[in-house]
Amino acid sequence: MAGGAFEDTEAAKRAHLYEHKITGYFIFSCIVAASGGALFGYDLGVSGGVTSMDDFLKRFFPKVYRRKQEHLKETDYCKYDSQILTLFTSSLYFAGLVSTFAASHVTRKKGRKASILVGSISFFLGAVLNACAMNIAMLIIGRILLGVGIGFGNQAVPLYLSEMSPAKIRGAVNQLFQLSTCLGILVANFINYETDKLHPWGWRLSLGLATVPATVMFLGGLALPETPNSLVEQGKFDEARKVLEKVRGTSKIDAEFADLVDASKAAQAIKHPFRNLLERRNRPQLIIGALGIPAFQQLTGMNSILFYAPVIFQSLGFGANASLYSSLITSGALVLASLISMAFVDRWGRRKFFLEAGCEMICYMVSAILVFLP
Q1: Where do the Major facilitator superfamily (MFS) profile domain residues begin and end (predicted)?
Q2: Would the pLDDT of 78 be above 80?
Q3: What is the mean pLDDT of the chain?
Q4: Distance from C-alpha of 191 to C-alpha of 53, rounded to nearest angstrom
Q5: Cα(32)–Cα(28) distance, rounded to whole angstroms?
Q6: 8 Å CB contact between 161 and 174
Q7: In the structure, what pLDDT confidence band is assigned to residue 130 with cuts at 50, 70 and 90?
Q8: What gap in Å lies between CA 356 and CA 243, rounded to an integer?
Q9: Which of 96-100, 197-201, 322-326 is predicted with the least confidence, judged by mean pLDDT?
Q10: If DSSP states are collapsed to H, E and C, what string results for the chain?
Q11: Residue 28: pLDDT above 90?
Q12: What contacts 84, CB < 8 A, 6 or more positions away?
């Protein structure tokens, strides 16, 4: 029973029978796991800032730097036109996409904890390689390792949080991943603002500090318990029961544990899960929920705006420091919105927040178009 799938099961009708306490063990597990979101958030925030730093461009992309300085008769965006620079930024996302398939297998067969550890190690190595980069090849290999780390982390962490959280606060706990992502972006922008003043090596510090959340995630991950759901899937029922009792802070977990076992048996009874997804009765959920919503969320371009925020602000006429400072406002708004969502998502439901967010984005985008029309 992972994530939102819980609400669609018969077990949801018995959720009122589940007992739990908010224990220190549960809080520790969630904070460590949620640090996986900080990996993605920090990279999203720091990379866009680094690519706007003159010292970084001088070393690896001198043509782009010269375009910035010479004020050629072209748009500001054209000054950042470089296939190698594009490869540097996009290699992480491509590696993350490919690694997600391997992460899915590891998460299912070896457990959520295994994917979290693999992701933290890969991200740490990528951060070290980028910080020590002497040429573009090292930068790109480092970005690929970062992408693998993000692929494993983003695959396992939301699932881990959902499975560890009590049903009544599952929405808020799952939002910890989004909150840590937004905090990672905010911290990265603060760091970029300061390291841009450290010539000529400030960009190395920005990239190298990505090892901090990776180290937290790895060391904490060693102490993390595996989720009861994963242990049940692996047939380790006694261990699963012990973990569930420890996480819930009570021995009265019979109803929840029975539902975990029933859900696992029902899942294992499906011999061809991917073929089952394509059946007519499951197509609406597949097309709208699994494919449409995530795809259109990305197609809004919000992640691209967050990544390139310093470059965009600089292109609009802000100075280098001013552009980094302005992006702090954007990341600060992200953190605030995540906190609001955490406070009300279990009370109001996911659907209301989804509709509200969609309407809000439409209004802002239309306003932006009207503002920038000639």
Answers
A1: 29-374
A2: no
A3: 81
A4: 12
A5: 6
A6: yes
A7: very high
A8: 37
A9: 322-326
A10: CCHHHHHHCHHHHHHHHCCCCCCHHHHHHHHHHHHHHHHHHHHHHHHHHHCCCHHHHHHHCHHHHHHHHHCCCCCHHHHCCCHHHHHHHHHHHHHHHHHHHHHHHHHHHCCHHHHHHHHHHHHHHHHHHHHCCCCHHHHHHHHHHHHHHHHHHHHHHHHHHHHHCCHHHHHHHHHHHHHHHHHHHHHHHHHHHHHCCCCCCHHHHHHHCCHHHHHHHHHHHHHCCCCHHHHHHCCCHHHHHHHHHHHHCCCCCHHHHHHHHHHHHHHHCCCCHHHHHCCHHHHHHHHHHHHHHHHHHHHCCHHHHHHCHHHHHHHCCCCHHHHHHHHHHHHHHHHHHHHHHHHHHHHHCHHHHHHHHHHHHHHHHHHHHHHHCC
A11: no
A12: 61, 136
Question: What confidence score (pLDDT) does residue 3 get?
Answer: 42
Q: Does residue 251 register a pLDDT over 60?
A: yes
Of 298, 332, 324, 342, nearest in space to 96 by CA: 298
What pLDDT sits at residue 4? Answer: 42
Neighbours of 199 (CB within 10 A): 11
* CATH dotted code for 21-248+302-372: 1.20.1250.20
Q: Is 80 exceeded by the pLDDT of residue 225? A: yes
Residue 226 structure tokens: 């595996």
Is the bond preceding residue 374 a cis peptide, omega within 30 degrees? no
Cβ–Cβ < 8 Å for 19, 250: yes
Residues in the chain: 374
Instruction: With beta carbons less than 8 A apart as the criterion, state whether 143 and 1 touch.
Output: no
The residues spanned by each domain of the chain are 21-248+302-372
* pTM (predicted TM-score): 0.80
Burial of 133 per CB tally in 10 Å (0-12, 13-18, 19+): buried
Q: Are the C-beta atoms of residues 324 and 308 closer than 8 Å to each other?
A: no
Amino acid at 88: F
Cα–Cα distance for residue pair 219/20, rounded to 1 Å: 27
Q: Which residues contact 116 (CB under 8 A, 6 or more apart)?
A: 33, 36, 152, 153, 156, 157, 160, 217, 221, 224
Q: Is the pLDDT of residue 1 over 50?
A: no
**29 and 22 in contact (C-beta within 8 Å)?**
no
Give CA 196 to chain center in angstroms: 25
Distance CA 248, CA 166 (A): 8
